[in-house]
Amino acid sequence: DTEVTQTPKHLVMGMTNKKSLKCEQHMGHRAMYWYKQKAKKPPELMFVYSYEKLSINESVPSRFSPECPNSSLLNLHLHALQPEDSALYLCASSQTDRKETQYFGPGTRLLVL
Amino acid sequence: GENVEQHPSTLSVQEGDSAVIKCTYSDSASNYFPWYKQELGKGPQLIIDIRSNVGEKKDQRIAVTLNKTAKHFSLHITETQPEDSAVYFCAASMYGGSQGNLIFGKGTKLSVKP
Fold it and tell me: B61 — phi, psi (to 5°)?
């Protein structure tokens, strides 16, 4: 089973709202990733967690706050977003952060009004 | 850093024809090259991958070839079907390095006409 699940599938929020995206995998992977994907573009790496510790932050604005409560879960907390943050947010996981095969979830389509 | 170029950006073929998508990479240290298929409204799905110690890999109608000297790799889809229509992304990374980050190409939108 190579399934990564994400909730919610769709999210609409105002610029003053606080919301969270959730990601879960049960493959025993110890590396998890958040990507942002704009229309007709490839995924852009945002954060990497390795063994539940943040190992990479690709200069993402502080209005995006990641959290890894345990090895199976990954959250992305959103606060005071801008309309340009509207995008598909993808979660991925791999066996470790030195193992190449990344498996992606279906994504959360976010619209910021 | 690594840079991946992907061509063409769009590709239209008739059902049953073959489709070829090409990618070049810049960092000779890259040693892992996956291909992802992304259907509308879905996340990228790994369809095939190749490591630098192999020149070619096949999985039914899909094959990937790698030329390390020229630093390019290609996806070949034979006997295309309408359900092959999607956006395809190539990527490169350096397995075993400090981080196994994927560097993606810009994608190819494949349309298979019945």
Answer: -85, 0
